[in-house]
Amino acid sequence: MSSHPVESTDIGRPVWHQDQAAGLRRLFKARHNMTLAFVSAMPGTGTTRLAARLGLALASRQDAVLLVDEHGGAHNLSAALGAPCRFDLAQALDGGIALDQVLVAPGENLRLLLAAKAVRRLAEDEVEGRRQLAACLAGTWRRQSFVLADARVEEGGHPLSVLSRAASHVVLVVGAGTAAVTSTYLLVKRLVAAMPGARLLVLVSRARGEQEARGIFSNLAGVARQHLGVELGWMGWVPPDPGWRDGLASSMAAGVADRACESLALALRQMAGVGDAGDRPKELHGAAESRLPVGSSRMRTASRGIAA
Predict the structure, then answer these.
(1) How far apart are CA 256 and CA 277, in angstroms?
(2) What is the mean pLDDT of residues 158-164?
(3) How far apart, in whole angstroms, are the C-alpha atoms of residue 81 and residue 294?
(4) 14 pLDDT above the threshold of 50
(5) Where are the alpha helices (DSSP H) in 84-209?
(6) Of the four listed, 43, 129, 178, 231, which is most buried by Cβ atoms within 10 Å?
């Protein structure tokens, strides 16, 4: 991504200056560190549970995983994992407590950071917010193999928080149906205007099969390519999850991640360079996986997908 601010885009909207956000990404970056901000344009896509399940799947393979929860309320990551958070990142940024007191350990190799209050406060002064984040969080962030943020989508201004802008990839979780695809396209339009060169992946949620998921992705990617001039990357798909209605805590205690997210986790490990050939899901053997080169928004999508 260029460090030079762009004045306008082909869709006629001003873009945000990227210098400091790019600086945060460089500061937080480790050799084998992949950071993903999960976003959804509509409620009900299961984004929070997907982030939690994928975090569990990665942690079960001995990867150090940090889950960042930008949502408050009864249905956030903390609730899904059965791991109450007493403190928020905002309190560590104030210097009142140490960051270690904010971090919660829902399981082995897994840490959870509640940042709902912090992202709202950071929006008030983004320059100072970036300085505080760098001082407080960079060391912990770099020690992780994966950072997964259940990110808020802001209504006005920049669509992502200062914290989520440090992610190396934005994962668009899209459900089935015309309304979901249309809403996701509008979010892509905002992201492209605000974050030129951002690496955008699509994860289709609650699809009835790969054919339906591929069709949704093809429609969305085609419109984005034609009207915005960007390539969206295919991450995969997950089926409906009626068996998870009782929450994630019981599955976490048993150390079990569902097959769909296990397959996604293996593919992510390959992308991040922390896996080996034996880690590859069967569906990817002999296929050309998506490559996500640094500094490029063009993603060569897989010739075959992750059959979740």
Answers:
(1) 22
(2) 91
(3) 32
(4) no
(5) 89-93, 99-102, 116-122, 126-142, 178-194
(6) 129
